[in-house]
Amino acid sequence: MLRCSCSDSRNMHITIMADSETLECITEHERILQEIESTDTACVGPTLRSIYDDQPNAHKRFMEKLDARIRNHDREIEKMCNFHHQGFVDAITELLKVRADAEKLMGQVTDTNRRLQDAGREVTAQTEEVIRCRVQQRNMATTVEKLQLCIPVLEMYSKLKEQLESKRYYAALKTMEQLEKVYIPRVSQYRFCQIMAENLPRLREEIKDISMSDLKDFLESIRKHSDKVGETAMRQAQQHRTFNSAVAKQASMGHYIKPVYSLNERTHAHTPNGLLMDDDTGDDEADEEILTAQDLVDFSPVYRCLHIYTVLGDRETFENYYRKQRKKQARLVLQPQANMHETVEGYRRYFNQIVGFFVVEDHILHATQGLVTRAYTDELWNMALSKIIAVLRTHSSYCDDPDLVLELKNLIVIFADTLQGFGFPVNRLFDLLFEVRDQYNETLLKKWALVFREIFELDNYSPIPVETEEEYKLVVSRFPFHDAEIEKQDFPKKLPMSQSVPQIYTQVKEFIYASLKFSESLHRSSTEIDDMLRKSTNLLLTRTLSSCLQNLIKKPHIGLTELVQIIINTTHLEQACRYLEEFITNITNVSPETVHTTRLYGLSTFKDARHAAEGEIYTKLNQKIDEFIQLADYEWGMAESDGRASGYLMDLINFLRSTFQVFTHLPGKVAQTACMSACKHLSTSLMQMLLDTELKQISMGAIQQFNLDVIQCELFASSEPVPGFQGDTLQLAFIDLRQLLDLFMVWDWSTYLADYGQPTSKYLRVNPATALALLEKVYRGMKDTSKKNNIFSQFRKNDRDKQKLIETVVKQLRSLVNGMSS
């Protein structure tokens, strides 16, 4: 019983504690809810966190409390809405009634405003009309009153208009002067007088414009006739040059004719048209009448216009306008046609227009008082000269015909002489001729390049056959060839050079003649002409001919025989260079001992060509050797050799013998170098054949056959195919092959390994790597042979012993190779 009582009391105590905890929890939840409802949303976080920090089931009880609180608030919101619903409905109804009244009131106000605006607009318009009528009445009265004062001015102005319409410009200018000084000042306070006064300068401008139209006709006339005026002036200048030549000839025979035209001394007289006429106008020696500028152009409009502008006190404006227009015309005249460079006529028209322009300006300069000045014409000429030089420099660069460039040079000379006769400085034009000369030389070089190419293409590259004495003299007359031995030979005989040599020599002389043509009439000294000829000839030799020779040598169809002939030809051309110098000296009469005389560079040109031909000989020989090597067809697994050299190698040696026989005409050093180069290349090719990586195995029979071929090469080298070698120099080209083959033929590996690295070694030229590569191929060949012959037991033991020996040698060779690489 006592135990039960204790138990009950403990349960009761637990229940009481639980109830007290529940009450505390409910109180805490009420506090939290009040905080949530009363505090800011940002501060709710700490409050909610305290729920989770309490008892384990506090969250669930708090959610139940929160749901109850939400339901309580919902009931209160519903009660409040039910209480205020009727009032809200009544307010909406009243608002709808007020809206209808407001809309009606708005319509009435709008209509009243519209009617008020319409009525005010009519009143405003009528008021403005009344004001306007009253202003007009007042203005008309004032106008009638003031016109009585203005009628004389208007009558005078009307008179001015009539004078202008009848083209009485001088009277019109006088009337304008009266208006300005007498009539307009009386009524100057009125606007129309101010307008009239403002119109008078415009009327004066109209008079000037009308008079200017005559000037424009004049400018148009001279623009059209400048070509003809220039042609006339240039023809006179050309006749003057011809006449001077005739005078010089007559003077040399004791006769003299009075000059009818002189540019340099200006013995001519200036006529009003600006052209140059002879002093004796009655002396009519010309076949046709010489037209003057005034015969072609009427200058009276410019005089009249100048007078009007002078009367108006605006001469400066006229002068500026005239000069401006003429400058524009100058720019048009100086603008060439795009295809001017194609024909000489294009250049002639261009020069005629320019000469015509400046002949007219020269006439205006002397016929008027200050319309143009010498300073103005000089400035205009300098501007034109710069443009002319730029145009000629550009268009002459397009010319690829030397004849056209030469004609252009002659035109420039006549053009310069013509303008020099009118007092214009032309030194820069003669300076330009030096640039044109360079262009002329370039076109000549291009033309002669084609000539040289054609000569080389048609040459047969064989010595010139001479059948008779006449043929020999004909060749010698074209080319300075002298050889005592050949002269002693009987006919028929052959000259060492081919037919292209005299042709080249003749064409070089023709080039010198063509280059000389440009130097005529340039007023240069003989020394300068000599220098120009030598420089242009040097360009021909060092650039054009040298380039043609280089291209010829590189052509694939040029064989060894042709290359040998080219070397011979260049040797003779080189020897002929001194005759070319003598040829130039005879033309210019300038001693070659002169300090500043330029020398010809033909020696270096032909030496370079000869060296290139020699190099090409070496290359082609090696290529031919490679072609024969490609025909090699060794049976690398043969048991024994055939006992004779390979057919391809014998053919190669025969080819080399016949080739080196052709080299007898070459200088000894060239032939020796070619022979040594061929032997070295043959030795290298044979060595590469043995060491070819694609060749895996070689039998000793193949080694023996290869040895027979090398023996033939050595016999060829010892036969002295080209004279001049000392001792066994040529055989040394095969020394590497010989020592390598001897090592394998004798099988003297002990000696090789023992003496390796010593200067007295028997196999000094055998490289360990080379020996190793070839030994491995022989070793593989021996193993393959042993497999085929394994049925013979007595051979197996010998093969095994030899294989062991080879393996030992291979190891030692590899150690030597590794030692060399380290």
UniProtKB/TrEMBL annotation:
Q: Which UniProt keywords apply?
A: Exocytosis, Transport
Which cellular component, as a GO term, is one annotated location?
plasma membrane
Where the record annotates domain Exocyst complex component EXOC6/Sec15 N-terminal, the positions are 65-234
* GO biological process, alphabetically ordered: Golgi to plasma membrane transport; intracellular protein transport; vesicle tethering involved in exocytosis
Keyword Transport set for record: yes
Which residue range or ranges hold the Exocyst complex subunit EXOC6/Sec15 C-terminal domain? 429-777
Q: Pfam family of this protein, just one?
A: EXOC6_Sec15_N
* ATP-binding in keyword set: no
Family that this chain belongs to: Belongs to the SEC15 family.
Q: What does this protein do?
A: Component of the exocyst complex involved in the docking of exocytic vesicles with fusion sites on the plasma membrane.
Q: What is this protein called?
A: Exocyst complex component
The organism encoding this protein is Astatotilapia calliptera
**Top-level taxonomy:** Eukaryota, Metazoa, Chordata, Craniata, Vertebrata
